[in-house]
Amino acid sequence: MTPFHYAFKVKDIASTRAFYADVLGCQTGRFTETWIDFDFFGHQLSAHISDNLPEADYCGLVDGVKVPIPHFGCVLSMTQFEDLEKRLSDAGVSFLVPPQTRYPGQAGEQRTMFVLDYSGNPLEFKAFVNPKEMFAR
For 81-123, what is each residue's pLDDT tens digit? Predict the structure, then answer.
């Protein structure tokens, strides 16, 4: 797997560090007063302070559920998904889309959940029952 790099806007470094490091458990990388990097499940996130944060548009419709666009996240193992679900719940993070099963009994069956980080960025986490079916049709 080749790691991806994603740079995005946040309101401040302190709440961003609290969400990604303390809640999600991501290791912190380089940082300054205006940006901070995280090891996001093996990928590089770079959060930059901005006072112009976009609003999510709930225009996505997936398996009958409206989801925010844009969003980003990560495909996890089922164990990682369950551990993260507990971390989020224990931290009092509200679910935009609560943990649920999508496409039950079909190719690509998966667990999914959506949350907002402390700057309002939507994130999706998912885990496939059969990881080989990630791109199944």
Answer: 999 999 999 999 999 999 999 999 999 999 999 999 999 999 9
- 95 neighbors 88 (Cβ within 8 angstroms): yes
Phi–psi pair at 48, nearest 5 degrees: -120, 135
Pick the CATH number of 5-49 from 3.10.180.10, 3.40.50.970, 2.60.120.260, 3.55.50.30: 3.10.180.10
Q: What is the length of the chain?
A: 137
**Burial annotation 97-118 (CB, 10 A radius, 16+ → b, else e):** bebeebbeeeeeebbbbbbbbb
Whole-Å CA distances, 11 to 31, 51, 64, 69, 103: 15, 6, 32, 19, 35
Give the whole-angstrom CA distance, residue 85 versus residue 136. 25
